Amino acid sequence: MRRISFVYVVLVVCFIVAVCFSFYFYKQANAYDRKLDAAVSSLPNPTYHFSLIGEEMNHEYWRLVGDGAKEVEQKHDVFVQYEGPSRSNPEEQLKLLDMAIKSKVDGIIVQALDENFTPMIDKAVEAGIPVITIDTDSPESSRAAYIGTDNYLAGQLAGKALVEDTNGQATVGIITGSFNNAHHELRVEGFRDVVEQEDGIEIVAVEESNITRVEAEEKAYNILTGHEDITAFYGTSSYDASGIVAAAKSLNRQENLYVIGFDVLDENIELLEKGDIDVLVEQHPFEMGQQSIEIMLDLIKGKSVQDVYHTDASIIRKENLDMWNNAKGEAP
């Protein structure tokens, strides 16, 4: 009986101690929250609130755009609200654009994937919100400026690389990210305008990947099985080259296949190092993000801005990867 009473007393004491500790830590947590709230409330609110709407948040390219914008945010009195669909979805981008207008942000930076963006951009401008297009332009809209790659020139660079590396002799398949996106159309147009001047180069098929690796592989597989004389591929979106390589490997056709792709994603760089990709067209999304915020600040402050700002595009081959890595290491 005494033993039971002793155990009961110990349990009661433990319960009281636990309650006391809980009360103590509850008070400490509340005190910390009050201090944190006071510290946050004492910080000045940013003068400007910008909305940056990208194409695909889970894409390395668009993460770099956001990183560039956020770096500039830290240097100025601005808050950049960076948003976008997890996967490419123009309708969701339009909803985010409409929300930014209703939120009365101070400026909007948006990728204008198709003609449906034009009236929404005009709506923002009519509401007194300046708009900059990024990566993909909407020249018919009331946007104040565009910043991004000169996509026609980038296509030309890819075409010149093919002519140079194949001595003007190739049977080519093209995988484009989309038939409806202006920047992919320009990349194909620039490429065509170069290679079609060569008698020894023929483009025999053009398919779209919808900017997915799976569809790029599927379309490349279909082209390879339908055209046994294919010797080269050109992909205009970030995932096209890796999809092309996967299709070629599944058919044991990669040995003598020349592949051009876009963007220096980690996977693309690895395939370039292995020799599975021959050329990558490099864009500069980090700089796009940086400059978009700087341009928007100039607009807000009443400074004059250009209609179009082009970031660089360049060709990377396996033999100049060391130089590219060194330059990347020195970049901010």
From TrEMBL:
Q: One matching Pfam family, short form?
A: Peripla_BP_4
Question: What family is it from?
Answer: Belongs to the bacterial solute-binding protein 2 family.
PANTHER family in alphabetical order? D-ALLOSE-BINDING PERIPLASMIC PROTEIN-RELATED
State the protein's name: Ribose transport system substrate-binding protein
Q: Which UniProt keywords apply?
A: Membrane, Signal, Transmembrane, Transmembrane helix
> Where found?
Cell envelope
The record's annotation in SUPFAM superfamilies points to:
Periplasmic binding protein-like I
- Name the InterPro entries on file: Peripla_BP_I, SBP_2_dom
**Highest taxon, organism lineage:** Bacteria
Ranges annotated as spanning the membrane: 6-26
Q: Where is the Periplasmic binding protein domain?
A: 52-303
